[in-house]
Amino acid sequence: MGDAEAARGRREHMGGEPIPNGLSAGIPRPWWIYQGTGRPLRDVRLDDVLPPPPPWRTFDGVTARATVGEDPARELSGQDDEALVEPPAPPEDGQDATRRLGADPPDVRSGTEETDLVNAALILRRPLLVTGRPGTGKSTLAYRVARELGLGRVLRWPVTTRTTLRDGLYSYDAVGRVRAAAAGRTASGEAADPRGTDIGDFLQLGPLGTAMLPHRLPRVLLVDEFDKSDIDLPNDLLDILESGEFTIPELLRIRNQRPRVDIFTDDPERSATIAGGRVRCRAFPVIVITSNGEREFPPAFLRRCLHLRLPDLDTERLASIVAAHLGRADDPRVQELIRLFRERSEREGGLAADQLLNAVYLTTSAGPHGTGPGWEELLQAIWHKLDAADPA
Description:
Blueprint: H1 3-16, H2 46-49, H3 78-83, H4 94-101, H5 112-124, E1 128-131, H6 138-149, E2 155-158, H7 165-169, E3 170-172, H8 174-183, E4 203-205, H9 207-211, E5 220-224, H10 233-236, H11 238-243, E6 245-247, H12 249-252, E7 260-264, E8 271-275, E9 278-280, E10 286-291, H13 299-303, E11 306-309, H14 315-326, H15 332-348, H16 353-365, H17 373-382
């Protein structure tokens, strides 16, 4: 059996396996790689089942640590492949993932449309724009994908009104370097050890910049609350989303004197070697961009993304989230809270799942005292509107 047939067989095996006990949703599609369970793939390597990118989404970035003279355009395998890419992503950040997914992730399969679009974005190497009401699991999706596909630590880029493209790509502490140089001079004015002011010590790749390093497998990048960005940021992103590369001007200017520079990355205790001031990806990252719908995006940006709108959470998904984080979904009081929460959510135009978690934790922690009219008033205050300054 050839490699293509073997890969196809593995995909069919993954898509056709029975749904584990407790999982809901329809029958998986044969072409799915991401199954929407949030559970790590078993006995399958992602690079064995992931089809090659479309010709217009193929990138040939090579790590600057590679041996000089290697041809990055050739087809690589085995040791050569490992020599020309960055080291594998750090393992999943357990504490961060637990906050997002819970200690015991929910036994609920994602909906068909959601899983369809995640797989389409993965295969087409396109960003996935995820919209929906607050608290419907938009950010959590990135962590589910990373865990199921074994893609390691999620890179998170939180966006605010002051965020610029450079914030996501890299940062340069020019003031810190000047101060370090001044502190390194002797009393006579002669410069001390120049390594103390190495430019690489004052540069750090941001989440987007780290995701664009030439990895063998794609990194997962969460661009969170993108609708809060400055009006120009979506257009500023167009080139890097299309080209898969960017330059660091501070290194580009000194490329003749310093052709290679080691700089820090967004991963803790990790660095990367940058050659000629240029970063170019090899495996285009899995980019999940979340938006609460507070603004519209320009057509040029939307054309480069696939769009997924998450529906409001139903009773089954809410119960599974409570079970994942608190392990108390079978408690009658919890079931009643879920029912009341859904009713309130429908009246108020949508509430967030963490508002339900707050109520469940507060009620169960209070034990037999968590009842009565006063308690109900407290719960109603916790379940306040999300779309108005005055929740009354």
